[in-house]
Amino acid sequence: MTDLLEVGVLTPMHETARRPLYTETTTSQALYLPIAPPTLGTEGAIIGRELYSGKAFIYCPFSAFGDGLPGGNMIVMGDTGRGKSALTKTYTARQIRLGRQVVVLDTKEQKEREEGEWAALGRSITGKAPVRFTPGGGAGASCINPMDPAISGKRQIELVRTIVEVGLGNRLDEFAGSALRLAIRRARERAAEAARQPVLADVAAALRAPDPADAAAKQRTLDELLADGLEASYVLDRLCGGQDATGDLTGMLDGPTSIGVELDADMVVFDLTKVPSGGVATTILVAVICTFLEEVWLRPLCECGTAPSRHERIVVDADSGAWEIGPNPDSQCRRYTQRKRILVCEEAWHILGTPQLAALLEKFLKFARGYGLSCIFIVHHLSDIDDSPETQASLKMADTIVIYSQKKSEAEETVARLGLPAWTAEHIMRLRRGIALWKVGDVIYPGVQHLLVEAEQHLCFSSGSMTDLATTAPDET
């Protein structure tokens, strides 16, 4: 494959030429065994080859959708260094060349480069640096406001409640939840009077200074309403810093949105590597980013780059008035086709393993088909994730499962939790590096070898610290 691609391999407009394959009948019978799983078609990104049949393995959830694949969500798992990140990076880069958009939540730092491991790939595709989040803020740091007007009012309430519950470690009762909703409304009103965006500090202030009219409407005294929301105000102060500016979310979620990046770019990398892994800040930050993406990035958009309103309506049934979105003469687009998008979550155990966050993202995953979205979660083992109902619901929405080599106990737990056939446990233990078991819908592909071209290798290599490379040039002879 290395001779098929030249310089500029990762540029979205570059096209790959496929050479014709000439075979005789007997050769075809040897290559395409009758016992091999069915192919996923010829449309999509080339992954590599299926070892037990010798066929090329081509995968695209958008092309295969509806033909045995009910959704586009994927989970990739396996021990460290087996090829999970390399697969995901090359897969997304190849999908971009098919017109897709990609957003990455990068939590995996490369210490020697002092940046996330997706930064180089993002720059090679878009020429832009990742969106960095740094505790305390500072030069080059970004901020997302959970109270941003771009996020709808209902989603703001859900998001702020999740922030408080994650920070508190418990779910809010009805009294506290009601006080929080009232405070969010008052925070919006007071910020509007000052002609600025409301922020989380405004919500904390409104919780500590409830309005008498709100207390009367809820048939509570002013002191009772204050007591209902006081603990939530302390949580927001602790997270956002209050007066001492030392909160977990200071500089990241405590001010107006300041993302200096175009969400229309082919790839947007959110660099979360400086945020303490597995902490409250990471969990909350991911929740806010995902909600912001749902409200802003996932807006309806045709592959020609125009909104549905720019396309003509075509009546398909005069009796019922049923219609569909048709062409756009301005862009010479013949029919509206929703642009497809991919969301990648590195080290996704902190998402799937947090019940509050899993519940918040359940709608995000459940309606991914309506968004034209494919979510990819990368984890090491399922033992990193709890067995809560919210997490199980998220796992069930992964219609494609990719499993690289795991140790005996992990392989057995993976097979048990995912309901795979018993023989796959020992098979997973014996997989070599770069080879994975794929389950696409109900079909199992026991050995898919991921292949990289030469131009991709330096962008996908994430084990430099453990590799013994020569530091001096070889002697000339």
From TrEMBL:
This is ATP/GTP-binding protein. InterPro entries: P-loop_NTPase. It comes from Streptomyces lonarensis.
